[in-house]
Amino acid sequence: MNAPRPPAASTPTPSAPRQVEDHTRLEEPAEAPADRAEAAREDMPVEARTSAPAPPPPPPPPPPPPPAPPAAAPAPVTAASTGWAPPRAGLTGTVATVVLALAGVLVVLYAWRLPPFTTALQSTDNAYVRGQTTIVSPQASGYVAEVPVQDFQTVEAGQVLVRIDDRIYRQRVEQAQATLEGQIAALDNSAQTRRSREATVASQVAAVGNARAQLARARADLQRVDALVADGSVSLRERDQTVAALREAEAAVAQARAAGEIARQDVRAVTVGRAGLEAGVEGARAALALAEIDLANTVVRAPRAGRLSEVGVRTGHYVTAGTQLMFLVPARLWIIANYKEAQTAAMAPGQPVRFRVDALDRAELTGRVEQLAPAAGSEFSVLKADNATGNFVKVAQRIAVRIAIDPGQPLAARLRPGMSVETMVDTAGGPRTAPAPANGSAAEPGASAGTPGTGAAPPPAAVPASGAAR
User: Fold this and answer.
1) What is the mean pLDDT of the segment spanning 442-467?
2) pLDDT tens digits for range 209-219
3) Which fold has domain 98-130+330-470?
4) Which of 34, 35, 45, 33 is nearest to 8 (CA)?
5) What is the pTM of this model?
6) Is the model's pLDDT at 293 over the cut of 90?
7) CATH topology for 167-297?
8) How far apart are CA 444 and CA 442, in angstroms?
C-alpha cells in the first residue's frame, strides 16, 4: 500500500513527510524516489506540468531503520504460581536406600538359589569331558623302521601303528630255538642212559644169584669134607681148601650185591638228571616264547579303536621300552562334574542331566547321573589339610559326579576329552532307567546305577534342594 501523497500545487520538501512516514509505518517497504516524482507529476494540472520547472534530483535514500527489539519471553512457571511444593530431600533418600537394599537382597537370594528362588536344578561349570585316554608305548627297544599312521587318524583295534627294526630279535628267536633243540637232545640221551643203567642193574642181580649158588655149593662141600675128615678118609689140607672155597663164595655174593646197589644208584642218578634235563627243556621253551614275544613287540598295534593324537615318533628314531609315542583316545566318553557337597544332598544315580558344551557354541545335550564319588576330592590329594591345629576356615568340598552321555545324539560325536561343560542335574526328576549302552556313552561293566557292588550309595531321602551356586 502506498502512503498518501501531498497536494499537487505545493512542492513541499519531500524529506520531512518521508521521515514521518518511515517512523510511523516501519512495516511497509520504502518507495523509490523516481516513482514518487512520477506520481506527483500525474497529480499536477497540465499547465503546471508544462510551466513548472523540473523537480530537483531526489536526495539519497535514508539509512535503513534500526531492527525492532525482540519480543519479551513468557514468564516461567514457578512452584508459587502452580501451588505445588517438592517433597523433602530426606524422605526421597530413605526410599531410594530401601529400594536399593531390597534389590541387593533379591540379587543375593537369586544368585544362591535361596527361597523364594529355590530350584531343583543343581548346576556347575566345574565339569569336563573324560575318556580312557591310552598312552601308546613300545615294549621293545630299537630303531623305528616304519610309522604307517598320521596325526589324528582314526584307527581300529589291532591296527599297526609303529614298526621297530626286528633283525636282532629274529636272531634271538633262532638262538632260543637252537637252545631248545639241544635240551631236547640231552633229554633223549638221558633216556638212553637210564635204559643202560637199568640193564646193568639186571645183570648185577643175576651175578648175585650166581654168587649165592656158589656159596651154597661151597657149604655143601664143607659138610661132606667134615664127615670124611672124621673117619680119616680126607686130609685136613683138603678140608682147608674147602673152607677157603666157601669163604670165596661168600665174598662173591657180597661183591655181587654191592655191584647191584651201584647199578641201582646209577639208575637213580640218571632219573634225577632226566628231571633236570626236562626242566632245561621247559626253560628253553620259555626262552623261545619270550624271544618270540619280543619279536612280536617290535610291531606296536592299537590296543582299541579310537583316534590318535599327534604322532611323536618318526622313522629312524631310537625308542626304548616305555617311550611315549602317541595317545589313543577311544570313542567312549563321559563327564566328571565336581559339585559342592551341599549340592549333592538330593542327587542319586539315574537322575536326568542337561549339559552345555562351550566348544559347540553352548549346544545342549542330555545324560544321566551314573555314579557319585566315594569321597571328596581332598581325600585323594597327596597333601591333605590338617584342621586339628591353627585357625579353622570352612571350605566347601567338591564331590565328583560321573555323568553318562545319552546315545543317539549327533553332537555327541564331536565331544573330546578335556572339553569344558556346564552341567545341570534335575534332582526332582528322580532316577530313570539307564539307556541301552552305545558307542560314546556306554558305562563300564558293573557300573550301572543300582547294581550291587558298584559302590554307588542308595538314593537319599528327599531334602530341600540346596543352592545351585557355581
Assistant:
1) 40
2) 777 777 777 77
3) Elongation Factor Tu (Ef-tu); domain 3 (2.40.30)
4) 45
5) 0.53
6) yes
7) Helix Hairpins (1.10.287)
8) 7
